[in-house]
Amino acid sequence: MFLAGFVRFLIPSSVLFYFLPFSLLPPSPTVTASQVPSLFREPYILSGYRPVQQDWRCYLLSLFRKHNESLNVWTHLLAGPVLLLRWWANVDTLGCTLDDVTSLPLLLFLVSSLTYLYLSVAAHLLQSHSERAHYFFFLDYVGVPAWRERIGVIFLPGAAFFGWLSCTGCCYAKFRYRWPYPPQRKVCQLIPTGLAYVLDISPVAHRLLTVSWSQEPSLPFHALQIACFLLSALFFSCSIPERFFPGNCDFAGQGHQIFHVLLSLCTLSQLEALFQDYARWRDTVVELFGERQLWWACVSFPVLFVCCILTALIAMRHMSKALQSKDE
């Protein structure tokens, strides 16, 4: 039964991600790394960059053209509808209604997931316009803790703090370090996010180690989401495989593209696990914590989201001042 459900969930998403009609996209006028400011260069990616300071329409239309950000855009753009369809199917099957407080985390799951997916789409699609636009998409980092919050609603103080810290660490790394990027940049991005993930995933890891998987159908999905997350962190931090084949992964095969695919699969597997747990443990959670505490757990999400937006806006303000000084 689990295997059939797993295949039904995995195959459509894999087809969307891996058989993207990338080869059908017309080529976009692109330039080499040496022809764009260092801010826009990525390690081991030598070509496929879009020229800076073009009309905004050029970057919007580049959604349908081939460049070195195309797959970064499309992997998350297509993940959104897949996620929405699976969420809606599960909600319909379980008969969830929003007047039931126990259903609100399911809605927050969807909102936070779509937030990180489509902020990522906007960042990869539009950041090449200018240095100011590039730093404006600090808002992309708001999606990181927003997505993380949905699996940490019971650990409010720690989860909220580390969620905010992951946003702050990513903003600081972008503000502080310039290309060629030193290892400290990845450290600032990965350590806060890693701490948040360890805290949030600890009860799931405990269940995986102490409970028979045959007793809980959600556990294989939880194991899959952990595996996808850890693998995505590897590809994000190590710039592989392009590190070994400079110039050969400029359009397809970059580690960041693989990171996007794995993170999308991680989100989809979390969705399946969440609804399995909801169906099995809903009454127990209400009995243990009460509806009042569940309301407070849900309120923590918009509070965290606002804090992260303010952090990103402060970082962008500082960077805007730095760019003005540079222009003068």
UniProtKB/TrEMBL annotation:
InterPro entries named among the record's database cross-references: AdipoR/HlyIII-related
Leader peptide range in chain numbering: 1-17
Record has Signal as a keyword: yes
GO molecular function: metal ion binding; nuclear steroid receptor activity; steroid binding
Pfam families: HlyIII
UniProt-annotated location(s): Membrane
Name by which UniProt lists this protein: Progestin and adipoQ receptor family member VIII
Species the sequence originates in: Astatotilapia calliptera
Gene responsible for this protein: PAQR8
